[in-house]
Amino acid sequence: MDCETLAQGAAAILAAADPARKVALSRALAGRWREGDMGIGRASPAPRPARLEHPVLRPPRDMPRRRNFGSPTGRVALLHALAHIEFNAIDLAWDLVARFSDHGLPRAFFDDWLCVAAEEAEHFHLLAARLATLGSAYGALPAHDGLWEAAAATAHDLIARLAIVPLVLEARGLDVTPEMIRRLERAGDPESALILARIYEDEIGHVAVGLRWFERICHEHCLDPEAAFHDRVRRYFRGGLKPPFNREARDKAGVPASYYEPLAHHSLEKRCVAVR
To answer: In whole angstroms, what is the distance from residue 196 CA to residue 191 CA?
Structure first.
């Protein structure tokens, strides 16, 4: 990979529209960084990562609900949606590296997020390969365009970015993935279920990384992490947090229930007021 610093490499990955190239560049940059001879550097990534014409991106409200896991078509739709999430997750991790490269963060911060980015790239690769085995491909179906909103809303605030992306969006994945695994197993698709099980275990680690750096940076700014989390989520995340929560997985990641449960109650109160 032809780049002098980690931040430059991360920006180059964000500028790569082709999924296969994004995965290859992620692997190459991770390998170079781990050799230990690359500096952090600085970069100014574009507001949005590059994208091909397909998949066609639609507002989340225009996307059909995925219910029929028993049919091949339904499983392809599910795996395509998950591949789209993981494709965006690659960019979310690299954007964190590039956009906040000038914040004086320690090398350990970049070690952790490079590992997250590399694992997201592998998750996408596994899902894309599974789609190919099932006779489809990433980009064959439309996908929703709401995943980058969190990055855009928190581009100016590292604490907010850490609160929203790993501790809300990825933590939500911990809540819903076990049931998807069970439904795929019941549908007679253990291969796809195994991929989701691998992703699920890795995502527990990603949430743990997010929590560790969120709390450390809050303490460095003399902020109470729990109060800061509630503040940032209420300001930057639309819709509230949706129970039921996977307490077992969230506990493994170290996330206290006092972080997320009050926000679920807050969301319910807002909906009740709206109904009245």
So the answer is: 9
CA 140 to chain centre: 21
Q: Which CATH number do you get for residue 34?
A: 1.20.1260
Note if the pTM is more than 0.85.
Answer: yes
Average pLDDT, the chain: 92
Give residue 53's domain range: 6-275
3-state secondary structure (DSSP) of residue 185: helix
The answer as to whether 65 is a domain residue is yes
- 101-151, pLDDT tens digit by residue? 999 999 999 999 999 999 999 999 999 999 999 999 999 999 987 778 888
Report how far apart, in Å, the C-alpha atoms of 217 and of each of 26, 125, 137, 213, 243 are: 26, 32, 40, 6, 27
Residue 184 placed within a domain: yes
